[in-house]
Each structure stands twice: as C-alpha cells, then as structure tokens.
Fold each of these.
Amino acid sequence: MSTIKCVQCKRDKSVLDYDQDRHGAPRKTCQSCLQCQREQRRVRAESRQIQANQNIERAPIQPVGTIAPLAFISSRLYWNRLELGNMNVVCSSCHALHWLGECVGGTAAAPTFQSCCKKGDVILPAIKRAPPYLQYLLESLDTIARQFRTNIREYNGALTFTSVKFTADNRPAAQNGGITCFQIHGELFHMQGPLQPAPNTTPCFAQLYFYDPIYASQIRHSAHPRLNLEILQRITAELNTVNPFITLYKTAKERLDSLPAGESNARVLLNPQLQLIIESDADKRRNNLPTSYEIAIIIPDEYDQAGFRDIVLANRNPDPNTAFSIINPNHAAYMPLHYVLLFPNGDLGWHWSLQLRNEMQLRKNLRLSQRAFYRYRLHSRVDEPRTIFQAQRLFQQYLVDAWAACDQNKLNWIRLNQGQLRSDLYNDLSDAMLRDDFSAEQTGKRIILPSSYSGGDRYMQQLYQDSMAIVRHFGRPSLFITFTANPKWKEITDELLPGQSPVDRPDLIARVFHLKQQQLLQELVMAAMWFGYARC
C-alpha cells in the first residue's frame, strides 16, 4: 500500500489516513493533524468570544453627545431583516390571499389590491374541485401520490385531447444539476388531430376517448410504460364522468359519421361560442348542433360567424399533409383541452367575450385582457381549490403556455396594426424604393416591433439610451447593485403546500422577489437610509 508524507507532522502514512478532495485525490495533511487544527481553532474562537464579552462589560458608558473615535464602527447589530409577514391578507373582492405589501390603497384593516382582480372589476367563476381520486393524488404524501406528481406532465400528455408543439430549451439539462424547469424557444402551439387514426397506426390523444376506458388505458400505458396502469384506469374513469368535452367529441364523431356519403368535404367545428357546427362541402353551409346537454355553458356574446378561431374537431376526408390543425389561443377551450389534469371539469379559459365590471362607469375599454385573466387564476383563494398549484412540473408548463399565449396575442396585434404604429416612418422600405436597383421581389414585408414590446431590439436600445442619458446628466454611477432571489426565504417556504419545494411554486418566488425589490428601491431612492440622497 502506498504512503504519503504529511506536510504537518512530517510522517509517512497510509493513503487511507488522508481525506480526499473534490477531485478524488488525497489531501496533503493527514486526518489526525486536521483534527488537531480544528480543535485549536475552536479553542482560539472561544477565547476571543470570552475576551469580547469581558470588554463589553468593562466598557465605560459614554456621556450623551460624545462619539468614540473609532476607525470602524460596524452596524451589523442594527440590521433588521425585511419580513413581509404571512400571505394571510384576504382581498375583500375576490378572496385572494396576499401579503400586506401588495396592497395599492385602502387601510391596514381593509386594504385593496390591483394584481388579483383590479379592485373587484374582474369577476370569474371559481375553478371546480377535482374528482376524489385525482384530488387524493394531488394532495397526499404517500409514495403513489408522490410518484404521480413527479410524472404528472407525462400523465397529462397521455390523457390530453390535443397535442402540444414547441422547441424545448435543453440548456438546463446540459448544465448537469441545478433547478429543473420547463423552458422553450420560440412559439408554442396546441394541435388538434383527426378523430380517427390512420390505417395501421395506434390511436392517441382524443382518439382514445372513443374506446372502452380500460382498453384506452392499456394503449396509453403501452405508449408510456413508466406510468402506473391502475392510476391511468381510475383517472380515465373519472374523466369520463365529469369532463364535458368527452361527450362533445363523441357527438362530433357521431354526427360526422351520420352525414350522407355525398358530402365528402364535411367537417365538424367547435366555434368560440362552444357550439358544434357542421360545415358542408364547398358552399360552407353552417348548421348548429344542439350542445346544451353536452357542455355546461354556452357563450352568447362570442362571435358565431366562420372564423380562424374555430376548432376543427372532425373532418371526413382530411388532407394527409394538414391532418393536424392549430388551435387559436383565444378560444375558450384552448387550455382545458390540453391540461385535463388541471381542469378535469372543463373549466373554460380566456375568450374575447369576457368583460370587466364597470360600476362607476369610468372605464372606456371593458374587455378583460389575457394577462388580467391569468393573473386572476394565479392567485390562490380561501374559497377555491388549489388544483393548479399542486401540479408541480405541469404547473410550470401551464405558466409558460399562458405567457406564450399572451405574448403571441400581442405580437399578432402588432403585426395587424402596423399602420397605427406608423412603421413606414422608421423602416427601410422607403429608402429601398428610391434606389435604382430596387426589386419588389427581394424586398418582402417587414414587421416592426415597437419599443413598447418587452425584449425586442428597440426595447433594448431604448433602455441603453435611457441609461446613457442618466449617466450624462448625473455622472457615472457610484454603485452597481445586483439583487437575486433566495428560494429559501421564509416568506416562500411558509406558503408552500405540503410536500412541495420552492421550484414547484415559481409564482410565490416571483411575488416575494418583486416585493423585496420594491422595498430596496424605496429605501435607496425615497428613504435615503443607507447612502444618503440618491440622484436617480
């Protein structure tokens, strides 16, 4: 056995007498010498503490108005940790839970809040409670429930009606460790496929709901062997009982099969009013099918004309190249058709007919925006089930999907309103037309992103120019302060549900970070507590 000479005691000792460093190599000091060094440091630290206590007891009391001439006076003893308290303040309008620092008005006894319901102007129906077995899987702490929540994204993918298409960001996985999260590049789409599988192919997604629940669960388990077959069977049975879209899909398939053979191009649509429509042949006749007994709600204020927001549920002779159709994110069934484990009862998503309450008659625009809708949904309430907050990785995907829907809707508005943005004044089209070698075929159409779009080139340029203007006016900055979030902040860990970790609740981390950041800015700029007057 090889030996190594200790640099402390100068003795040759076996390799087993040495600790290993992070690279697996033996250290230069043996274990006994390291233990002696630790003991000596501990004794010296205790001696210093005893001496410091004695000096404090013997220190004379300074007369009022005198200052001890010290080279350095530590203020660590006067530091107070910022405590936001508990998230137990209830909004009087929507019953959402808040920290007191999130209020925008009112009194300490009756605060008002803007982020959850716009001071009571947003009114949405409460999310229905999940069926008993699914609720047990989301709340229980036993082994079966924990394994279900760990693989909940795969369970949802096996039970969903629609598929999702996106480009995943694999950079976090390549970093070998750290927090795992759901990240994408570019756009995210929900796709509706045909209701009948192609010959010699295995049925999937909505096609499985036309089979016997036990047989459908076996097909799902063969496609996802990591999942528990019994869990799939029991959840499938519950969804067939409570989810209204299953009956709606079955009705669409039955009505399409019952049409005459001569109507080869017929298809069944689900319009924004959540009504089934039969569109026949080239003349595009649209006939309503009775759906009041299949789905719990009809949206009367939505548009019922043919449009790009219709969901193609069934097509008699689908084109093989366009078998899958993209679902418009502005449709009320966009979210519940994919996130069946978050909305097992078919709770509707955002749609154009949602409006704000206007009791004071002061609002000009009564339309409820997508961002306001999702802000309302992302606040836990005392009288509403917390189903979406218990879904761990599926909750992360839902957040990314909601943000992508809002962002794509904003980009679509910018694309369709280039005239209002007066983009012709700051693009290069007018300059290109004045050149002698101008070719219309090579010019194309350019979409201008204004500086109001967060993350765009003009947005980043505006931030840079504003920063340089501040430096030009006030001078170079004295401090460069970075502020990061700590997932182990007490305000975050106290509000986690049983069995959760901070990575399962990005909504709490974002809210606590924003509150602490605003408090820091308030102390820097307004209170001038640390560095005196701040000129910015």
Amino acid sequence: MRGRDKTAGQSWLNEMRLLTASLRVRFILLVVSLFCGLTIVMIMAASYLDLRDEEKKALDRASAVAVTVSRLAVPHLTNHHYLILEQELESIVADPLVRHVQVFDPARNISVDGNPATSYFDASEMPADMARVLETGKQTFRLAGDLIEISVAIRAHGGEILGAAFIGIVRPEAGTVIWTIWQRNAVIAVFLLAIAMPITFHFGNGFLKPVRHLTQTAHRVSAGDFDAPFPVDRRDEIGVLARAYRDMVHRIRENLEHIHWLAFVDDVTKLFNRERFRQELEAAITAAGQTGEALAVLFIDLDRFKRVNDTYGHDVGDRLLLEIAGRITRELGIADGPVLSAGRSGAVLATGRLPEQPVVARLGGDEFAVLLPGRIRVSAAGDFAVNIVRAVAAPIDIAGVSIVVGASIGIAAYPSDATTCTGLLKNADIAMYQAKNGGGSGFRYYDAEFDRIASDRVRMEGELRTAMAHHEFELYYQPQIDAAGGTVVGVEALLRWHHPVRGVLAPGTFMDIAEETGLIVEIGAWVLETACRQGAIWARAGGNLRVAVNISQAQFLADGFAETVLEIVERTGLPAHLLELELTESMAMANTELVARAVDAMRGGGIRFAIDDFGTGYSSLAHLTRLPFDAFKIDRTFTAGIGVDKSAMVIVQTILAMARSLGYESVAEGVETPEQLAFVTSHGCRHVQGFLFGRPMTAEAFELWMAQHAARELRAILVAVKGGAMAKTLGDVSNLDAVCPRAVA
C-alpha cells in the first residue's frame, strides 16, 4: 500500500514538473502571481487608508463634541447654572460613542460631568490634561486604549478662560473595521481575477507560440545546426528578434577565432596580453611544483617612454612598442618574433605543462614580462636581461626621427622568491623599480630588502597623506645676506616634516613621493600661503625681507596657478615685490614659451622670479635672454667646490659673469666658509646664503637671531673676509692653482 502511495506521489511530482516546464504555463503563473500580489498590496494599502480615515472621522467627531460642550458651558459657567449644565452633559453622554464628559469651573473649584450617578457636589479628581489646558489655554488630545480623550478651554466672548472641558469618545475597533474593509476588497479582487484569467490565457497562447518556435530553433543552433530556419518572415518583435539572432549566429560563426585573438593578444605588439601571461605563468607554476624545476620572471619597464609619447604622439609610441617587442623576442630566440601565430589559430591554453620556449607578454603601457622555462637556469636570467637592455638601448628610427629609450628589468624566481603568480609579478616589479632607481638601463634580482623598502615607501605615502591634516608640516627660514652691506635682505622658505616617529625630515626624504602621488600641489599651496602670511607679518613689523619660495613643476603647470598666487598675495597682505618664486633650471628650460607667459602674468603683479640650482641643467643662452627672470641662484654643489675643485670655481665665475651681462641678480647658495664667501663676492655676487651666516630655522628662532646676533655676526664675518688675504687670493681665477693644489694635482 505504501509503495503504491509513493509511486503515485512521484508520478504526481513528475506531472507537475512537466506541466510547469511549459513556457505557456510559466507565463500564466507569472501573470496570475503578479496579479494576486498586486491585489494583496492594493487591499492592504486600501485597508490602511480606510482605517486611517475611520480614525480621522472619530477624531473629528470627538473635536465636534468638544466644541459643542465648550459652547454649551459658557453661559452656565458665567451664571453658575451647574444643575442645567449637568443635565445637558447627561444628554450628551447618552450617545453610545461618548464615554465621558466633564466640565470644570476653576472659579468655584466645581466639576460637572455627564454621569447620572454623580453630582457636582461630589468631590472628583480633575484630569491632568484639564489642568494643563487651564494653564496654557491650548487644546490637547491623546489616545488612551479604546478612547480618544480631548481637553479644551472654555472661553468667554472676550477670550477669557472660564474653565475646561474633558471629553472621552469611543475609538472604532481596528479589527472590526479591517475585517469589513477586507471583505469588501476581497470581493472586488475575486471579480477582477475572474475577468482577467480568460483574457490572460487567450493572449498568452498567441504571444508564446512564436516564442516556442524561436526557442526550438535556438536549441538546434546550440546543438551545432547553424542552418536551422528562423521565423524571419514575421513583421512583429518576434521577427525582429529572429533576424537579429540569425545575424548574430552568422557573426559568431565567422569571428570565433578573432574573438580568441582579441581575448589573449595585445593589439599593439601582437604579444600575449596580461591575462594570457597570467594563465601561462599559473600553468607553469603548477607543472614546476610537480617536477621541482625553477622558473624566472622578468619584469621590463621602458625608460623615458613617456617623453616619447608626449613629444611625438601615441602613434609613434605604438610603433616604438612594436619594435621593442620584436627586439625582445629576437633576443629570447623566439622564431616568430612578436607576431604570435598560435594566437591567430585560436589555440587553447594547455594547462599543467612547462612552456617549451620563453613566453613574452605586454602587460600594459610600457611594461613587458618574460617567463623563462625551467630548462633555463635562473642564474642565466641575468644574461638574458643584459641582452634585452642592450637591444632596447640601440637607436630606433621612426618616421625619420632617431629615438633612444632604455629598459629597467627586475627578476624574480620560483620558488625562492614567491610561489604564486601574483607574488612573482609583484616581486619582479619591485626589483624593476630598484633597477630604475639605480639610474635605469639595467637589471636587479629580487631581494627581500627591496620589499621592505617598497613597504616603507607605501607607508610613508600614507603618512604623507595625513601629515597635512595633522599639522605636521612647518616652514624653516634661511637668511639671505647682502654681502656689500652685511644686512639681511630676505629668507628662503624651506619645508620640514615633523614626522611622529622619524623626527624632523627634510624635503629630500619625501618630496619625490609627493610628486608621484600628486600631493605636491596641495603641499606647495600650503607652503606658498604660509610663507606669504609670515612675510606679511614681518613686513607689517617694519622688516623689508624678501621671501623666496620653491615651486614644483606640477604646481607651476596647474590650471590657474598665476591667479592663485596673486590671490594669496592679496589675501595675506604681503607686498608683491617681497615674494620671489624659484623655478629649477630644468623647469625653466622645458617649455620656455609657456614659462615666459606664466611668469609675465605674475611679474606684472610685482612678483619676482629666480632660476634655482642654476648650472645643473642645460640652459640655452638664446632661451635665457627671452625668459623674464630676475635672479640666478648658483647651485650649492658648485659653491662647495670653491677652494677644492678648479672646474667648479670656473663655473661659478662664468655664471656670475653671465648674470652681470644679462642683467640678472645672483645669489650663491651653500656658502659655508669665508673662502667661499670671498670668492663669490670678489666676482660680483652680492647676495649669499648658507651655513656661514645661518642655518634654516623656525620663524620664532629667526626673529630671535635677527634681534640678538645678526648685525654683529654678519659685520664680523664680512670684515674678516674683506680684510683677509684669502679675498685677494681668490679674487683672480688665474691664481686657482695656488688656492686648489688638490685640484691641480
């Protein structure tokens, strides 16, 4: 018996599955379900609104009763007719919806209610709401169980409060109201459903018949029958869908191999792309883990490629990448060169095997990667790297232009450096950056110390992002001296970072990170405004000190930089002629026309400009004559060579002569000894700056230094230099051999 019941149950389930498998049945069930769901939502929404309406009616009814009682009570309270008032309240309470009515006369402390069993002579407790109404004169109401309780003030015609009325009205029972509403709405829903079902069946059959036909055709196509007929002769949406599906199948049939090519091959270099390289590397790691062989990954990044793109455009950059890809593959001994015939044939990746030859890929931008198979020793990866660097460095002629780039390569090995695809690429990338930081055009094997350096760099980047918000930056000021008069004519604002762990950091430890992350613009804006604000304070105190501020290239090239500078000068109150902006020589020479336009706009407002670190770049005399600058600042590396390096002294003398010829002022940085001071002043340098006069110091320390030591110390230094024999000796560059015996030797 149980067996027959079980068999019957399974048969019923199978029939239900077959029944619901029909698209027609599913469509009808969907429509019915949606209709029922919407009906339930409609009934619930209508029931809620009706219930709220009933409650509002009850509240309006209670308010009307309260107004009636208030009006009836006015003459009776005025004339103290409490008995008549009591009778009228009893008639109101006779209404089954009115549970309680009470009037209170504060003048005689008498309470009258509509309860026949009580009298106004009886002592009764006055509700708290009535006392509140007597105090404020405002109507109150609240819901208390099955009652709506309202308290109103009874006012005379002049507005005077004569007393208070308290009314309790019966609330409609929510359950009874909801049940009545649901019965009404349910009848409406059943009626609508009875009408909708036949209509749904009729239109469902007509709509789904061509869909079933199209579905059957799609199944035949998925089984490999690309010649299955589509109902393309229909003029409705089904016909449009059929024609689109037919065309799509045709395109898929023709372009399947091309899709595979696009998925795994870089379109510019015809090398594998990042995804295909990842698959190859993971497959090689799996195979090497089984055989115990080692693998090597080379991460290649081109040096100076961005400059090529920016100068000649992306078309030339793409042709350069294609040529570089060909050189790399030829150095690795890949016969096909950069064009991968396997990619075009749609070959599927074979997993669990080691590659028979090196695998080359372009990861993106100017980055390439090479996977050396296990048969090549990891120690030999350096030889491949040397050959690739040499091949890439050879000049490339594109469109009549000879282009020279370099390659920095990082090498990571499996399993010694990492055991995953991500780890190998990451560590090879870290090693590549070490090669690039070492000057480029070379290679580095991965070292765990590189990882620590990279982690420190990432950590410092995060700390640098929060340093501004935590007010960890401060400006130090180094005095600039007029060597002729011994007076302080200005200061250079120098940034310092009060790192919470590493202490006070100079810009050299973090400025390159700021430039890479773009934080240099925000930091530079803070430096400029802070320096201008401090300079304005000194100017108002009577100090005529010029404030020099270094400007980064990103900051200078930012949109609206000139307007920002002029606005800061005006806002801080610093006289414009006391602000000097310093641009490095390489910045000034990069785009002289752009620099000249931007500088002219600010010099028109009175701001001075200086070329910083002069002598370290590649200035053109023709360009220098067109740049609207005010001063040269001789780089400290040349100043440090005075008395030691004959060539440095010649360079300093030449720069000073050039400055005089072009009408530029000159400032010698890094003056630390009397000999250096004597040399630069004897050759016409009037303004000097360096540890000989004062180290960079905070604004407060600088003010104290000025007040206590500056005048006396500067006079002593200058008198000693001018009166000493060193000034006479260094005054003529012909005596350099006597001054620099080590340089001559």
